[in-house]
Amino acid sequence: MRRKQRRFSTFSLSFLDIMSCGFGAVALIFLIIKHGSDHEIEVETEDLSAEVNLLQEEVEIGEEHLVLARNTLDIVSDELAEAQGLARRILEQIEEVKGNIAEVDSIDEKEDIKRLQDKLKKLEQAKKDLEEENKKLGNNVRKYSGDGDRQYLTGLRLGGNRILILLDASASMLGDELIKVIRARNMSSRVKRQTEKWRRAINTVSWLTAQLPPDSQYQIYTFNTSFRAAITGTEDRWLNVDDRDQLDKAIKQLDEIVPENGTSLERVFNAIHAMTPLPDNIILITDGLPTQGLKPPRSATVSGRERRNLFKRAVKVLPKNVPINIILTPMEGDPFAASEYWKLAMQTQGSFLAPSRDWP
Hints:
- The structure is a single chain.
- Helix 1 runs antiparallel to helix 2 (110-135) and helix 7 runs parallel beside helix 8 (304-315).
- 52% of the residues lie in helices and 9% in strands.
- It has helices at residues 13-103, 110-135, 178-185, 189-193, 196-211, 244-254, 265-272, 304-315, 337-347, and strands spanning 162-168, 217-223, 227-229, 239-240, 281-286, 324-328, 352-353.
- The chain has two domains: 15-139; 162-353, Rossmann fold, CATH 3.40.50.
- Helix 8 (304-315) links the parallel strand 5 (281-286) and strand 6.
- The chain crosses the membrane at residues 12-33.
- It comes from Microbulbifer variabilis.
- This is VWA domain-containing protein.
């Protein structure tokens, strides 16, 4: 007997089971996708927070640099305004001279025309010099103007991160000749401070400080039988070159020093070891070999051989691998000074200079 065919119904139990399984699978897939999306968003949020913090730090650093740049810009702007004012006056003078030349039409006034043209050339040259100086404005920490217009090729090594200037302030710095020194020693302190040789020494220090790298540090020691810093209380400390007020104060304090007593290189060389860190460039301004060591001499006079021995003993305590640049203003009666200081400069990879009397 033929089996009766079963009819299909959408509401049968088997069909409902299949539909339920399908909906469950879809719900499970949705939950998995949703969970993965939340995790990715959280990771991306953490990464963006780190980037935001980094950008905030960069903004703070940039603001600090911006303040420094604005301060520097103010200084340069003042100097530029002054230079532009000078240039404007020169241009007005040039225009005035050109007007005078235009008014001269007579052939009989050729000499006047030539004279005005020469004056015009000088003014134009002055304008070019001023523009060149304006371009170089800011390279020197301080401005130093000498009495003359000459430019010197010194060969001095003025670079370094920590520059120590040693200025001899002994009685011999009162004059180039022994008789002048003896005469000046009996005068008042005011007269001693104004002697020609001592003023040259102070002007030399002023010139040197004007050439120092702006991002370096410095210290100025004066010495005779003892030593002291130009700014009292700053011994064993490094001062910043970019602090122009402090640098001007150091030079001003040198005007109060009175050259006196003998010379002890060994004492001031020993003092260098107390500086932390040690200098990487030393500039020594002196006029001869030392007259004593750490202790006063037993006799009133010191022979040339004894002075050479005192010098060699002082050199032994110098820090190693530091160039020594010598500026020697020779004193009569000390013939070995030039050769000994020259050898010291060569041995330390420094330089030696015996300047003319109108330098710097």
